[in-house]
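Practice record 12: protein with threonylcarbamoyladenylate.
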Amino acid sequence: MSDLKTEILGADAQGYARAAAIWAHGGRVAMPTETVYGLAADARNDHAVAGIFAAKNRPSFNPLIVHVADITKAQDFVIWSDVAARLAEAFWPGPLTMVLPLRAGHGLSHLVSAGLATVAIRVPAHPVAQAALRAFGGAVAAPSANPSGKISPTSARHVARGLNGRIEAILDGGPCGVGLESTIIGLADGPAVLREGGIAREEIEAALGQRIATQTDAGQARDITAPGQMSSHYAPNALMRLNATDRRAGEVLLGFGDMVADMSLSPTGDLREAAANLFAMLHELDQNGATHIAVAPIPDHGLGRAINDRLRRAAAPRP
Ligand code: TXA
Ligand code: MG
């Protein structure tokens, strides 16, 4: 369905005011964050939140992340704790999402938390997200601004490719610096990493002074299935082969570090650079019509863990 004219908004006072007005009227505006672009709508408005699921074709049992401008605003919605305070102090604004118990009278749409007693919340660091949230004065729910199952967008152009005609507007704030989604940490019963992401686990452990458990999909019983936790996700059109050290017939090789490749996530072997490039390069290869993408081995520490998580899902058997 392409019956909407998707407006492109500039990253200026006029653009922020327009985004805020669209949100206030229940519409959807894709906005840049430091991780990836998010498809944002008023987190208190059921109709608006339903519109996010519709635009993405997202299975509606998957809960969304609430984005707010600061800690004070976050405390309107969740039951705060000492651990939450320590993490917020260390990493907010920034690419860390905390899953906390919902507070009585929170007023959020139940679609945001998919009926759970907890909600995922974060304070994005991107100045454009900050400015738009402040112009709005409320909270927005925002999953990544891509059709469900596809590669997350790290530029306004990526968003337009996937969602043009399906959403009211795109706020163009240039490319995203981190390039991978936020790290999600569950705090409802003891800290646990629910999704690897833009803040390395080592940094979180250092901030808390303790080791933390992982509770992703590795055989754990979970009461929700999240898109980021589905096996096939973040997928380009091309088939993927991981841990490749050479290029086979018909493949393009996405390299890392000192090697001969068609394109490189980071020629110097820098994980931060590789994270920032990952989705953008997969988008580019997709657009160039690649049918088989081979990807070099990525070290499995720090941001490398999140990169490998996304690569495994991109390579997983498709539904
Ligand atoms: O960087 C990011 O986090 C981006 C930008 C836009 O902020 N957003 C993002 O949202 O990645 P999304 O919807 O693609 O991923 C949300 C993740 C899902 O894996 C979902 O399961 C998890 O958050 N989640 C949300 N609410 C939860 C809850 N109450 N308990 C456990 N996981 C939750
Ligand atoms: Mg996503």
